[in-house]
């Protein structure tokens, strides 16, 4: 696991983070781990747009789509 150092964080922001960590019953380190995990597990708008572009780029022939519809109607 890597070590992360953040310099020049204003004292008022540190105070807010410490207060929130305490209210959550966590150490500052555990609270910040949780924030980082939450931030890195949700995709950005650019990542979502790229994913949608990839998924929308799938090409299907009309005959394939109609055959799949018919297959669904016939149950098999």
Describe the protein's architecture and organization.
The chain is mainly alpha-helical and 76 residues long. It contains 4 helices and no strands. The chain has helices at 11-23, 28-41, 45-56, 62-74. The longest helix has 14 residues, at 28-41. The relative contact order is 0.06.
List keywords for this structure.
mainly alpha
SSE map:
Elements: H1 11-23, H2 28-41, H3 45-56, H4 62-74
Residue share in helix: 55-70%
Poorly predicted runs are: none
- Helix count equals 4
Which descriptor suits the 3D outline?
A: elongated
**Total E-strand runs:** 0
Rg on CA atoms, Å: 24 Å
In terms of DSSP E residues, the strand content is under 5%
- Helix and strand element order: HHHH
Query: What gap, in angstroms, lies between the N and C termini?
Result: 50 Å
> Multimeric state of these chains?
single chain
Main β-sheet: number of strands, strand sense, barrel status?
none
């Amino acid at each position: 696991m890597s070590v992360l150092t953040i310099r020049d964080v204003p004292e008022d922001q540190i105070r807010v983070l410490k207060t929130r960590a305490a209210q959550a019953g966590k150490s500052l380190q555990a609270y910040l781990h949780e924030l980082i995990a939450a931030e890195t597990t949700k995709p950005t708008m650019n990542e979502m747009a790229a994913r949608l572009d990839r998924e929308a780029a799938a090409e299907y022939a009309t005959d394939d789509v109609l055959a799949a519809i018919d297959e669904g109607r016939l149950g098999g």
